[in-house]
Structure prediction request, 454 residues.
Amino acid sequence: MRATRPGLPLVVVLAVAAALLAIATVARVISARAGFLVERESVLVVWLVGLFVAAVLVAWVSRAAFRRASSPLNLWLLALTAVALASPLLLIFAQHPSS
Amino acid sequence: MTFLGIPALWRLMMFAGEGHMTRQLRRGRRAVAALLLTAGILSFGYVAVASYVAEQLVYAAPTPIDKTPASLGLRFAYVSFPSRQDHLTLRGWFIPGVLPNGRLTADRAIVVVHGTRTNRESKGDHQLQLTGELAKHGLAVLAFDMRGAGESTPAPLSMGTLEQRDVLGAVDLLHNGPIPMPELGRPRVIGGLGISMGAATLLMAAAREPAIQAVVSDSAYAEVVPLLEREVPKRKVAVLGHVPGGFVPAALVMSRILYDVDYFAARPVDSIATIAPRPLFLIHGLADDYVPLSNFQRLNAAASAPSTAHVTTWLVPKARHAQAFKVTGAEYVTRVVSFFDASLGADRSLTGVAA
Prediction:
C-alpha cells in the first residue's frame, strides 16, 4: 500500500477531471430546463465550486503522498502528476490566428 | 497567497521527512514539490479564468427591434416557428413580395439571416432596408431572429454551429408549416441570404438542406475559431477586462465542456462544396478587416471545386465588414435580385393577390 501511495495523486487528478466533466454535464442538463439565462450562470457556478473542491482535494492528496515519497520512483510518479496537472496549460500553444 | 495556505503547503511538502534522505533525493523532492505547486496553481487558475471567458463568449445580450417593415410601407405578418431538432421558439416577419402591378406574392421566398449580436432589423448593416428592397422587387422575405437574438428564445451564441438549426426551422416553416399569409399560398421555391455570421450559418444549413435552392453569402467566414482567437483578446470581458490571447483556446474548449457549444464545428469551408449544383453568390468587402479576404478566397475555392459548381462572386471595393449593401445600395440590390431571378426563375404567381 505504502509503495503505491505516491501514484494516488495521479489517479485522483484523473478521477477529479472525470468527475468535474460529469458534474458540469449534469448541471447543464438540469439547469437548461429553466432556460439558457439560468443555465449559463448555474453551470459556471457549479463548475467553479467543483474546480475549487478539486484543487483542495488534489492538494491534500498530493501533500499526503509527498510525505511518504522517499524513493526516486515515488518522485517520478509525483512529477508525472504535476505534468498531468499542467496539461490544460498546453492549450496556450494551440492558437492559430487568421491574418 | 498567505490566505490560501500556499507557503504552509510549500513548507510541508519541502521539508517533511527529509531527515534521513540523501542530498540528491532532497533536491529532487524540492524540485517536484515546486513543480506540483506551480502546475496546480497555474492550471486551476487558467481553467477558472477560461471558464469565465467561455461563459461570456456564449452569451450575447439580445438587442431591441425598433422598426418593422411597415416603416418601409410594406405589409408583413409576424411569424413564430420552432428551430429544427431542438425546437426553440423563433420569431420573425414574413414580408410578401410586391409585384410590378402592386399585387402581393409569396411564390419565391428568401430566408434572410442576420449576423452576430444583432437581430432581424440589424441596424448596423441596414438589413431591414435590404429585406424591404427584396420585397419591393417581388421576392417574399422571411426575416427572423436567430436563437438568443431579438425576440427569439434565449440560447447560447455558437457562431453558426447551433444556429443552422434555426435556418432549417425557417425552411420547414415555408415548406410545411403554417402558411404565414394563407391567401398567398405556400412558396414554390426558397432561397437564402445571409450576412456575416448569418452567411456562415446559411452556408452550413444550405449544405444540409437541398430545399434552399439558391444562396447569397455576404461576408461569411471560412471557419470561426481563428476569428475568435484574434478578436476575443481585443474585447473587454466583464470583471476581467482584456484577456490575454493564451486564454482563448481554453475558453473555446470550456465552451464545449460547459455549454455544449462547439465553435470548432463552425466551419462552412468544410461543407460549402455540397451546395453545388445549386447557385451560390459570394460577396465580400475588399476593406473587410474583421473577416479578412482570405476567408472569401477559401470559401470560393472550396465552393468551386465540384465540376457542377455554379458560383458567382463579387468583391466590393471600399466595403468594410458586412457593409457592401451600405456602400453600394442600388447596385447590391440589382445584383442580388438578378441572381435570385436567374436561380429561382421568375415569379409564377401570375397576378398575385391584391395588396
Remarks:
- Chain A has a mean pLDDT of 88.
- Chain A touches chain B through 47 residues (CB under 8 Å).
- The helical segments of chain A are 8-32, 36-68, 72-86.
